[in-house]
Amino acid sequence: MDLRDGQTQPILDPNQPTHVYHLALDIGGSLAKIVYFTKDDDRLVDVEEGLSHRKALEKSNGSKQYPVLNGRLNFKKFETSKINDCLDFIKSMKLHIGGRQPQENPGSQPIVKATGGGAYKYADLFKERLGIILDKEDEMDCLVAGANFLLEVVHQEAFTYMGDQKQFVQIDKNDLYPYLLVNIGSGVGMIKVEGEGKFERVSGTSIGGGTFWGLGKLLTKCKSFDELLELSYRGNNRAVDMLVGDIYGGMDYAKIGLSSTAIASSFGKAISDNKEREDYKPEDIARSLLRMISNNIGQISYLNALRFGLKRIFFGGFFIRKHPFTMDTLSVAVNFWSKGEAQAMFLRHEGFLGAVGSFMSSDKHGLKELLANQVAQRSPRKLSFAVDKILHSLPDGEFNGDESIECSVYAA
């Protein structure tokens, strides 16, 4: 797959659903994510012109042409609590019609790859509403496969963020492993990744995105996760948190390296202040809550990286949402506890790791059959996935989630 990073487009219009193939889902506790491929046209790629496919072509048997599907890889997310919105979108776009048919019984219900707990919880609902069978893939397998794929082939996928400075990291896929993958969803999973298919879940915490959203909903009037994040951006956690300076009369605790602005106790000022909950601003509460959870995740992540001697920590999951304050807090926590020896890195497609991994599992069957039918003279042995490093992303490399990326699926 050739992902043309710099050419993101708005999600496709529901009035043009006729060339949809290979829907895949990741249904988590908080969000349901879908990835699907839409075909633009078919063509043959000549060896000389197909620079973006050079690695696959070099492994060929000398043939000059290969079946190619040009189109877009589309991304979309929904709140799991509103799973019917997801079902309605799939139905309106006719995404389920692109599901593969079991070879032994072509007339039976389409099968769609899915991962996450919701693949089990909502399996009957998808069957009843859309007439599709969810073919379940292991959640950890998909997370790691999606992260490995994106880090190995997508230009400017990883970046650092600290002190309002964003810097993309050039990943050498020959020197990618090992690394710690921290997936922040409703809860947090921490996975030591050592290679393709080689990984181990080493830790986690129940204090994650679901905690932020749940407590935030109880403490503020926010109706959505994004609304809560936006509220936190306007807040000042110092109005709620007890700082080192509050304890030491505005002074640092220099002996152990704590500045006066370091948080000594999250929400600690509520103990001593003669105030009721209604006296605190919702935005300050949201900011303190976000800081508390992000600091905790950052510290636990570093301790696990230290445990296994890992210098790279990649953070993924929709908790982050490219939110500057969240990324900065995670980075500062890792930098502080590691004394600058470890580095926090973030992923452009942070929330779609599992969905991408689920989509990639289609390589085992559906995409191969589809490509084989494009050109009769040559049936592909397998699919090859690569990216042309000549192609560059937009200057800021932003990715909002509900967008699509121009790509080509081709055979080698």
TrEMBL record:
One of the record's GO molecular function terms: pantothenate kinase activity
Top-rank lineage group of the source organism: Eukaryota
UniProt GO cellular component terms: cytosol; nucleus
Pfam families cross-referenced by the UniProt entry: Fumble (PF03630)
CDD domains: ASKHA_NBD_PanK-II_Pank4 (cd24123)
GO BP annotations listed: coenzyme A biosynthetic process
PANTHER family: PANTOTHENATE KINASE, PANTOTHENATE KINASE 1
Record protein name field: Pantothenate kinase
Species: Sphenostylis stenocarpa
Taxonomic classification: Eukaryota, Viridiplantae, Streptophyta, Embryophyta, Tracheophyta
